[in-house]
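U., I forgot to send this yesterday:
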Amino acid sequence: MLANEFVIEMDDSPGKLADVCEMLGNHEVNLKAIATDRVGSQRFVRIIVDNDKRATELFDEADLMYTENSVVVKTIPDTPNALTDIARRLGKAGVNIEAIYLLSRNGKTVNLVFALDNAQRGAEVLKG
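Result:
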């Protein structure tokens, strides 16, 4: 399944992530998934929300630097080597994995978000 992801670039300083979360929450935008990474002095936050349109408006109003990407959400078994199978299938199809993060887990399955260099092709490869 394809979903929309926002990648927000922000300073790596205390309270910046809280400011973004508070801004979204105060406007009834709920986080469905989040992952962070830091490169040098920059922090990158990847999020999926329940209201893309409102999030875009808020990010623009706050002058945040962000990009929007299509990502693939895939449910896989919560077993050893399940991710290996996915990574091999994508690799054989020439699709590069840029990031992976957890959406949910219930003990039997794991819902993962895959940021790929070609989300449409990745979704086709991972169907079923």
